[in-house]
Structure formats: C-alpha cells, structure tokens
Amino acid sequence: MRAVLPLAARHRFRIISNMGAANALGAARRTASLAAEMGLHLKVAAVRGDDVLDAVLAGGYRFEDTQMSVRELGDRIISANAYLGVESICAALRTGADVVLTGRAADPALFMAPLVHEFGWALDDWQRLGQGTVVGHLLECAGQITGGYFADPGYKQVPDLARLGFPIGVVDEDGGLVVTKVPGSGGRVTAATCKEQLLYEIHDPRRYYQPDVVADFSEVRIEEAGADRVRVTGGRGAPRTGTLKVSVGYADGYVGEGQISYGGPGAVERARLAIDIVRERLELTGVRMSEARFDLIGLDSLHGSRPSRQAADPYEVRVRVTGRTDSLAEAARIGNEVETLYTNGPAGGGGVSRHARDIVAVQSVLVPRDLVRTSVSTVEA
Amino acid sequence: MKLREIAHSRTGDKGDTSNISLIAYDAQHYPLLVRQVTAERVKAHFSELVRGDVTRYELPAIGALNFVLQRALGGGVTRSLALDAHGKSLSSALLDLEVADPDSSPRPR
After folding, report:
1. What is the pLDDT of residues A123-174, one digit of tens each?
2. Whole-angstrom Cα distance, residue A46 to residue A25?
3. How many domains does chain A have?
4. What are phi and psi of A118, to 5 degrees?
5. Between chains, do B82 and A297 touch, taking CB under 8 Å as contact?
6. Please, what is the Cα angle at A267 between A261 and A273, to 5 degrees?
7. Which chain A residues have a beta carbon less than 8 Å from that of B14?
C-alpha cells in the first residue's frame, strides 16, 4: 500500500483488492492510517460478510470433495468464508471509495466489478458477465498470462523474466478484451500464454461456476493483434446458481518431515537403504502415523515410480520421509529418525533438514446465497 | 514422438482435483490430440497418482483439451503429504506421453 497509494492519489485511479483477508475492516483502517501518514486524503471501503462460520455451523453441510460432515468436525473448525461476487464490490465503489478491500472474494469478481460499475452491466446480463469472467480469470494471476510460469527452454522462450511485466486489460463495454503489458517490461503476451491461463484451474469449460454467473469458455476466441497484444472474445454465460462456495478451514492434525541427501556411486542404493531403516525405526519406536510417504527426490517424488524405472540412476538423490500424526511431539519424531541417519544410517548421508507443523486443511461447501449478507464500511483518511 | 513436440500444458488445482490443459502449438495438430490423447490413456499414464475419474473436455476453438483428474492430489493441497502438493508439475508428466506422428511436421521453434 505504501508503494501504490501515492500513485493512486496522484493519477486518480482506484484500487480493488482482496488483501482484507480475514479482517477487511482492520485492513481498511490500517490502509487509511497509512494514507494519513503519507499526507493523502483517501476513502477506504471494507467489504464485509464473507465470514459465514455461524451459518455453516448451524447447517448440516457436507464437504464437496469428501462428503465429510462439517458439523462432526466440532471445535476443530476454524473458519468459513464465502466467495463473494461483484455486487458488494460495486456497492463499495458507489461510496466513492478510492480503495476497496475485501476478504474472501472470487478472484474474477475483483476484475469484473469495475466493468459492471463503469459500464452499468445488468446483473442478469449473463453473456456480458460470462465474458467479464473471462477477463477476470485471465488477469487474476498477474504474470501467469504475460509469460510467467510458461518458459520451457528450447520450446517456449520468454525474454527477461526477472523483469516480468504484469498484464494490462483493455476492455470495451461488451467485455471484449485486449491483453497487453507495459512496453519494455519482461515477458511476452501471445495466444499461447493466454490459452494456458484460460484453462488454468478450469474443470468443465462450459460451466465455470462463479458467484455472479455460470461462465462458458468453450467458444472463447484468442487472436494475436500485434506485439504483446492479444484479443480475447466470445465468453458467454448462463444464470448464476442459488448457492455460493464457502471455504472451511479446520485443524487437521500434524505433519512431520525429514530429508537427507546421498551422492556419488551407489547413491540410490544407499538412499533406499536409508528409507528401509527409517521405516523400520518408526515401527520399532511406535511412532503413530495415519498416513506416511517415503520419497526419493530425483527419482519418484513428483510423478510416481514408473517414469524413473526406464531412466538411468541420478548422481545424487534426496530421501524425504513425511507422515501425519495426532500431536506435534509425535510429528517431530519422524524428522528425528531421519537425522539419526547421520550416525546410524548408510555411509555418506548429508544435509539433513526436518520440521514438524500443525495443519489447517481447507475444504469447500455450497451454502444458499441468501445466508450470505454483505455490507460495506468506509474509513476516511 | 513426445507430446511435448506438438503441445504445451499447464496444471491447475482445486481441492483434491487437478486439471491439466493440453494445447496444440499448431491448430493442425488438434485432431491428433483428440484421437490419441484420450481420457483413458491419461488415466493410465497417471495411474500411480490418480484415484478417481479422468474426464476430458474439448475446446476446438483454441485447439486445446482439458483433462480433469479427480482424487489426484492426496486429499488436496492443504493436507497432502506430497512434495508437490498442488500437482503443479503434472503438466510436464503429461507432455512425456508418446504419440504417433502421422506426417512428422515439427512444431516451429
């Protein structure tokens, strides 16, 4: 905020962000006081109401992925936040706020709200809201459309990634989008970078469920319109559903982990021996784990054991042992057994790292949208 | 040849579900992708990792396929014990898949 508030005041642009996180009003107050410190007169709005913990606890909801009952988690539940859409952000914009801060909001809505606000789109104009979702979806990961997370030397070249330019979306009143970036910045905007981002985190492209619309990406057209300029049109939409997605955070036990490396001739054999020893030690000493993994980083940690079965052994390999436990003390014992390999394991193991931590897991439920009541508070500096 | 020669890919995650796009560099290779990179092949390719169904969606307008892999991320990014809990590296595993090359016209570099 220190970096952007003076620019926003000087050039009279407005900022919309979900940086309010778990406390949008607190963030708005802090932003206003920062502005005041810098001698700026700004109005900051907080969008509230995404916290629906009480409603989720009162209802008989089940997680979408696992069908687990939310209520059965009892006091392990930490948070429940609904993904808000454009309505509450537009309400905040109508207060004249220079900065709008939300908690949990659908990422595309952060970008679509100013389009709805400026162009006066109706909230049942499903075609425009569908294309507006395309706009927001393409811009929401910043550098991921301007060549970030894209380079593959020899196949996909991207210049000057250390100075990656973030995207600029030029949008017309029908939602037609041109993606570009600041001239002279690093990265590239091409049809290929836009296609990768269009499908990022998408399941059925005909039904991308958003708070404001069910967007349809299946007929989207992507055309290069000059250097680092790509035109994107053809997003469509269908009426929104009666529910909103809610992320529920809950305490989910503890995870312990230890790693150690082996190199040179016989590295893989010594690493396999190390795993056998740790596995047996964890059993002998009675470390209680509900789930465990034994990885050889360099061989099988990312894509399973099949791909490396046809490849030559690597020069060096890193053992990774990790498991889920009911207590932090129990989790720490996993890393300890890896560290013990220094003196009691195979020859030449080095570079042990270990940690134990508590886990806050997140799963989602769908709740009726009328249970989610939003409001806007403003703070002036 | 490897898929990498004619297509590029990015992985996304939502909960325990992974999606992997497969995008032809050249639209003329899209029909080859549709014929050879079936949901069944992708499920077999990821059989060690994916416990649920694999669904394929076709996007001819941009010459791309989108694979959705259920129960693929060890319970989801927040609780998975995997090193790559998001499954972000899975796109590279998909590009390792072999496809038959009918006309051998290579992707422009």
Report:
1. 999 999 999 999 999 999 999 999 999 999 999 999 999 999 999 999 999 9
2. 5
3. 2
4. -75, -40
5. no
6. 85
7. 201, 203
Do A150 and A217 sit in the same domain of this protein? yes
Q: Residue A310: pLDDT band by 50, 70, 90 thresholds?
A: confident
Nearest CA in chain B to A318: B83
Looking at the fold, whether A186 and A274 belong to one and the same domain comes out as no
Inspect the interface and report whether the beta carbons of B61 and A219 lie closer than 8 Å: yes
Do the domain assignments include residue A79? no
> How deeply is A243 buried, as exposed, middle or buried, from its count of CB atoms within 10 A (0-12, 13-18, 19+)?
middle
The chain-wide mean pLDDT, for chain B, equals 94
A379 domain-assigned: no
Contacts of B66 in chain A (CB under 8 A): 199, 202-203, 205
Residues 134..193 of A with a Cβ closer than 8 Å to B: which? 149-150, 152, 154-156, 192
In chain B, what are the domains? 3-94 (3.30.70)
**For residue A357, what are the domain limits?**
249-363
A381 pLDDT tier (thresholds 50, 70, 90): confident
**Is B1 an 8 Å CB contact of chain A?**
no
Pull the structure tokens for residue A243.
């529910």
Query: To the nearest whole number, what is the mean pLDDT of chain A?
Result: 97
How far apart are the C-alpha atoms of A124 and A102, rounded to whole Å?
23
Please indicate whether, in this complex, the C-beta atoms of A65 and B84 are within 8 angstroms of each other.
no
Contact: B12, A196; criterion CB under 8 Å: no
Nearest chain B Cα to A306, which residue?
B48
The answer to whether the CB of A60 falls within 8 A of the CB of A74 is no
Share of chain B above pLDDT 70, in %: 93
The residues pairing with A168 across neighbouring beta strands, listed in sequence order, are: A180
Q: What is the pLDDT of residue B101?
A: 83
